[in-house]
Write a structure and sequence with these properties.
By secondary structure, the protein is an all-alpha fold. The chain is built from four helices and no strands. The longest helix has 29 residues.
Length: 92
């Protein structure tokens, strides 16, 4: 039996090449353009919440803020699910 790397024909290189791992794709994947707004938003939110903890009673305030944010996310997810069910898909 022949080794796939030594096979003959046009697909010789395709058999020898392997798919890159997830770590390689994490750092060297598709090139991105523009400013990373999501990363900046997460860093800003982290900084704001860190400053809230510096205030007296800030830990209690952060619990209230987290409850409000999670509640809004839950309501938004349910609303988007209802819209997705009611709105028909566009057919190409």
């Amino acid at each position: 039996m022949k080794d796939p790397k030594q096979s003959e024909g046009p697909n010789r290189n395709a058999l020898a090449r392997q798919r890159p791992g997830w770590l390689w794709l994490l750092f060297y994947g598709r090139r991105r353009r523009g400013f990373p707004w999501l990363l900046a938003g997460i860093l800003l939110a982290t900084g704001v919440l860190a400053l809230v903890f510096a205030l007296p009673g800030g830990a209690d305030a952060s619990r209230a803020i987290a409850a409000a944010v999670f509640g809004l996310m839950l309501v938004g997810a349910i609303a988007l699910a209802v819209v997705a069910v009611l709105r028909p898909r566009r057919r190409p």
